[in-house]
Amino acid sequence: MQSSISIVIDALPYLLSGFFNTAAIVLMAMFLGLLLGIGIAVGLVYGGRMLRFLLGLYVWFFRGVPVLVLLFLFYFGLFPYLHLPINALVSVSVVLGMTTGAYQANIFKGAIIALPRGQFNAASALGMSTFQAIRTIILPQALRHSIPAWSNEYSIILKDSALAFVIGAPEIMARTQFVASRTYQHLSLYIVAGLLYFLLTWLGVTSLRYLEQKVKIPGYSHHGMR
Amino acid sequence: MTITMPPILQVENLYKSFDNTAILKGVSLRLHQGEIKVLIGPSGSGKSTLLQCINCLVQPDRGEILLDGTAVDRTSKTSLCRLRQEVGMIFQDFNLFDHLTALNNIIIPLRKVKKICRREAEKRARLELEQVGLADKTELYPAQLSGGQKQRVAMARALAMDPKALLLDEPTSALDPELIGEVIAVIKNLAARGMTMLMATHQISLIATLADEILFMEQGSIVEHGSPSVLLAPGSNSKSQGFCDRLNELSDGRE
Q1: Where are the domains of chain A?
Q2: ipTM for the complex?
Q3: B131 closest CA partner among B158, B104, B110, B113
Q4: Contacts of A222 in chain B (CB under 8 A)
Q5: Average confidence (pLDDT) over B20-33
Q6: pLDDT at res. B255
Q7: How would CATH label the architecture of A4-214?
Q8: Residue B203's closest CA among B169, B229, B237?
């Protein structure tokens, strides 16, 4: 019988390809969520009544339904129904992206409405259109203030991505389970899986903290007094 | 002059209510080229709302705003943008864009609104900062500037847009006493260069020395107007005089 160490070493390349697939899922989901979140947040703050209502429905739906249900709903239900030939990995990215989009929308919305009203007024008073003011004045500030909350969202989505296992996307959890069920080295293999998730969390959170420092506004105090 | 030239800015019968409380009750005024009018009156009398209604940051309920004799179509975004480009605004709390350096605070609107190329915009921005005595602060962020410096950057930013008139909403009220002087100096310099201004202020030195006309507001109406030499003359018994006397007492003899 092989030792557990040599089994882990033999399985490592296979597990690592899962690692990169998980990273790809999370990056795609967070990017899709970023685009959706910014759009929804701007609509929720500046949009008309009807638009706000529709966007509110979107947020309510994706926050209200478990990710697992959404995965089944889209992968086994909606995508085949629409004859969309989307593989498991992309499906997970899209579903997680749409889910985090709803959460990110609220992060950005909070950051936008926390900005002093005068920022928008000053832009308007200089003759900028609403779109220009949002793009050049409001979002650059709101997005900076959103980075800490956004990094929470990253680690949550990273861990939710393990659910992709149930629809057979070849990510860390699925690959680990595949090897474990054949070698019976559950303990050592799931420790490795946990470490791989931990490594991805650490990489993401550290990069985001670096980004936060990098784009910090000189002299700007986050502790009240301005 | 008044016969041939329409006023640069004319406000006719402006009304505004918030939640059934009337804030402006039919305010009219005219501002001719080079004129400086000063709005005074107690807090809550509608001075700030009037200024914000004039460039439609707050939409008036009724009334007309005329720019160079032409009524502004408040439903059209392009005419609103034009109005705001031609009528600059200075706020009590400066409202510099916090994420941009002093220089970029001026460059961004020049590029986005006036569509001037980066190099020209930067040249203009440096010139305007020099005019307000901040040539050495171009790369600093708002949080690194004093209140007086922020207000001077805000003025440079408004002036870079080449406005025909400037609205000033208590430009010195948020400043520490020792910083008021530098902002007043800039305003006086502007007046000397013939800038048309409508200013709400509690600053006696600006009221008495700069105003061509004082407009005294009370409960949403202009209840008294006239030149400072008449309204503030000893024994004139005007509301303006009473108000300025009280301001003088409060500032205990300080300028």
Answers
A1: 4-214
A2: 0.91
A3: B158
A4: none
A5: 92
A6: 45
A7: Orthogonal Bundle (1.10)
A8: B169
